[in-house]
Amino acid sequence: MFSERDMSVCPSLIAVSLPNKQSWAFEEISDTVFEKDSHASIVPSKYKGVYLIYLEQGLIDDVVKNFSLYSHAFISRVIPVKECGNDLDLVVRKSLLSLPKGFIKLIVHLREPLKGKVSEEDISNIVISQGYKLTKKSNYALVLENIEEHYISASGIIRKCGPSCITIYQI
Fold it and tell me: What are the sequence ranges of the domains in the chain?
């Protein structure tokens, strides 16, 4: 287990439950994560249904793949954290580096305190300025969320992890 001082606001993964399914989602998340990392910590954030997952170094890919092996009925998404920081432009640009130029899907979930300060259009403009085109049908995605005032992003290939669950395979 991780001590509180080892847990920053930037976790290894973020998992988000479907609305009003937090306790069931926590069970699914725990079963899937602990199967691959018995030393992991799963911490409910201050946001309803959002869990911060801290893993041992080097186990992120194994845990993400494990989410795709099962059908999770109570989880909305599992996001492996690629970039984390306070500078929106830098976080987005760094995450885009691993994606091939062309069409990508942009998935944005902002919470307070950044929800009213940054728009999806602001993020779209950064992505477009880097030579990408936005579409809803691409398998390649850039996901952007926030925890407190930190932007958290993932980029890669979208994979299903249940009827309403997606995760991102980093490339």
Answer: 4-81, 83-157
CA angle 89, 115, 84 (to 5 degrees): 40
* Opening angle at CA 63, ends 4 and 12, nearest 5: 35
Q: How confident is the model at residue 3 (pLDDT cuts 50, 70, 90)?
A: very low
Q: How far is CA 85 from CA 27, 33, 81, 88, in A?
A: 29, 24, 11, 7
Domain 4-81 carries which CATH code? Answer: 3.30.70
Q: What is the pTM of this model?
A: 0.92
Mode of pairing for the β-strands spanning 50-54 and 13-17: antiparallel
| CATH number at 83-157 | 3.30.2130.30
Three-state DSSP at 135 gives coil
Take residue 122 and report the two structure tokens written for it.
């602001």
Query: How large is the average pLDDT for residues 44-56?
Result: 97
Q: Is 55 exposed, middle or buried (0-12, 13-18, 19+ CB in 10 A)?
A: buried
| Tokens 């399914």 belong to residue | 21
Sorted by sequence, the CB contacts under 8 Å of residue 10 that are 6+ apart come out as 81, 84, 85, 147, 150, 152
Contact 40, 34 (CB under 8 A): yes
Contact 52, 81 (CB under 8 A): no
